[in-house]
Amino acid sequence: MPGLERLLARGRARSGETSLADALCQAFRVPRQDDSPLAPVTATYDGLNANRGYWLRADPVHLQVGMRGMTLLDATHVGLSELESEALAASLKPLFEEAGWYLLAPAPERWYGHPSHAVKLRTTPLDVVATRHVNSALPVGPSAARVMRLVNDAQIILHDHPVNQAREQRGQKPINSLWLWGGGEMPKTGRHFQQVLAEQTEALALARLSGSAGAPCPARLRDTPRADSTLLVLPEFPADATAADAARLDGEWFMPLLHGLHIGRFQRAGITLTGPEGGGVQLGILDAWKVWR
After folding, report:
1. Helix or strand (DSSP H, E) at 44
2. CA 221, 132, 80, 242 torsion: positive or negative?
């Protein structure tokens, strides 16, 4: 990936967030609470009234126990339908209500918990653990023990649920737990980008909150509509990608970005890499010409 290599070498290093959730909040200058508070932002995007109180993502997931610990697959990876989501959530709502929580499931891959009492909890974003091991990523904080008891009780209900029994008979993975993350109260943010191009709901929800135009991410940089400022959120690079996939990504995005800086099409650019070795760089036109770096 020579384009990305040169951009990273010539750019001015800046601290980066390792999760997409945290990187998005940093880009939109959303202050961190105990978590990066994406739950109320996406809840509003999903049509809920989340302007008051604490909201927490409680997304349905499949936890698989292996030799090295638990691996997590979210609803997108296991193919949870809307009808299945509604049936599972309906069975869990009485449990949550007894504990003083509202459980809402406006989308199969996005569920929400809204408590009637104060919650102090620090969690790990779903994008950090999806398809990965979750052994050391459980919630911590003063409310963690009480909240995790609720999750454990939910796991018992999910274990023999008819929806999961039917899924297993069809060879599909059951929904056997909830992943809590993104908690907080509705944040405020200004308009930092003219347009936000992304597939991820979290990015599009922040775009709407900030008053930016939101649209799907194009297939390559040259298809990006002209704008004074653009946030592009590329799809996750798959773990099983080949060298050809990497070369295609470099040719569609990073080499054109370097060339665009060279010829002055772009005045400046920032790159944030998420994941275990996340980080980022900022580049201006002069930085792009530092060929000795």
Report:
1. helix 38-45
2. positive
d(CA 100, CA 270): 43
Mean per-residue pLDDT, 69-94:
93
Name the nearest CA neighbour of 76 among 219, 220, 209, 199.
199
At 88, which amino acid appears?
Answer: L
The 3-state DSSP composition of the chain as helix, strand, coil percent (nearest 5) reads 40, 25, 40
Locate the domains of the chain by residue range.
2-22+190-288, 31-184
What Cα–Cα distance (Å) separates residue 212 from each residue in 33, 43, 208, 217, 250?
A: 23, 18, 6, 14, 27
Fill in the DSSP letter of residue 254.
I
Residues 188-239: tens digit of each pLDDT: 888 999 999 999 999 999 999 999 999 999 999 999 999 999 999 998 888 7
